[in-house]
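Worked example 2:
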Amino acid sequence: MRQLCTPLTEQGARLLKAGDEVAISGVVYTARDMAHKRLCAALDEGRELPIALEGALIYYVGPTLARAGMPVGAAGPTTSSRMDPFSPQLTAHGLRATMGKGYRGEAVRRALREYGAVHLSTIGGAGALLSKHIVSAEVVAYEDLGTEAIRRLELVDFPAVVAYDAAGGSVYDMIGDKSGV
C-alpha cells in the first residue's frame, strides 16, 4: 500500500497507476452534486471559490451526523458518475484527485490525462468503517446544503484504490469489466 499525502502535485499524481492501493492522509474536501454545480457556476462567473482546488482531493460523500466524540458519522462514497458533468472543469482548475465509487465517463478520463490527475475508488457500504480514518471535519462552504455542504476533512490512512490514472489506465479494464456502467 502506498502512502498518499495531500495536497497532491501533478508529478505525484502521474506516478500513480490504476490498481495501486493507497492510504490517504491529510486534508480532503467533500462535495456532491449541488456543491459541484455551485463551484462550476462560480468559476463561470469569475468568482473566487470557497476552497483552493490546486492540488486538492475531493471525496464524493455526504457524511451522516456524528455520534458523540466522533467528527462525522458514516462516510461512505457516493456514485462518482453523478459528478461527471462538473469534474473536467474543476480538474482544469487544479483539482488533482477525486474519490467515490464506480465508473467515470470519457470526458472525465480525458481531463485526468490532460491535467495529470487521478480518480480513486473506496469501499461502498463501509461508511462506518471508513469514518474511523477521519480525525476532524468542519463545514467550510454551502452550509445550506446540509450533509452535502463542503467539508474540510482530515484523514489518516484512509484506504482507496487508484481506479483511473493520469496515463489512461483503468482498474476496471484490468479486471476485465468492459461494461462502462
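The chain has one domain: 2-171. Helices lie at 10-15, 33-44, 87-92, 106-115, 127-130, 171-174.
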